[in-house]
Design a protein that fits this description.
Order of helices and strands: EEEEEEEEEE
Distance between the termini: 40 Å
Largest sheet: 6 strands, mixed
Strand order of the largest sheet: 2-10-9-4-5-6
Number of strands: 10
Strand content: over 45%
């Protein structure tokens, strides 16, 4: 059974930084992983993803500010978020994908971690 646990969310002022972590277990380490977020009243959206070979994807809204990385040995993916704005506020979810060479979200979601950007 796949288990996913996110951590690292919190309250931060505009312009600040946070690093989110997502630890997965119960599955091989080489699957693509992704971070999604859901703001109040909005649909969940893909923020960033990373495949086994290290290639990454970023939503236009976070390019140049967010960095996704992974540690296959720990089956962990990270999301470094810099220069945060109030529009980044939401619940951030991690997903362990269905494939290794490209990211396709699976039904394996974490419980989410709240990120609030406010002064």
């Amino acid at each position: 059974q796949v288990q996913i646990a996110e951590s690292g969310g919190g309250l931060v002022q505009p312009g600040g930084s946070l690093m989110l972590s997502c630890a997965a277990s119960g599955r091989f380490s080489f699957y693509a992983m992704g971070w999604h977020r859901q703001a109040p009243g909005k649909q969940r959206e893909l923020v960033a993803s990373i495949v086994n070979g290290g290639s990454t994807f970023y939503a236009d809204s976070v390019k140049g500010r967010f960095t996704i990385s992974r540690d296959n040995a720990k089956i962990t993916v990270y999301l470094q978020m810099n220069n945060l704005t109030p529009e980044d506020t939401g619940v951030y979810y991690c997903n362990l994908g269905e494939r290794s060479s490209f990211y396709v979200p699976s039904t394996n979601w974490g419980q989410g971690t709240q990120v609030t950007v406010s002064s």
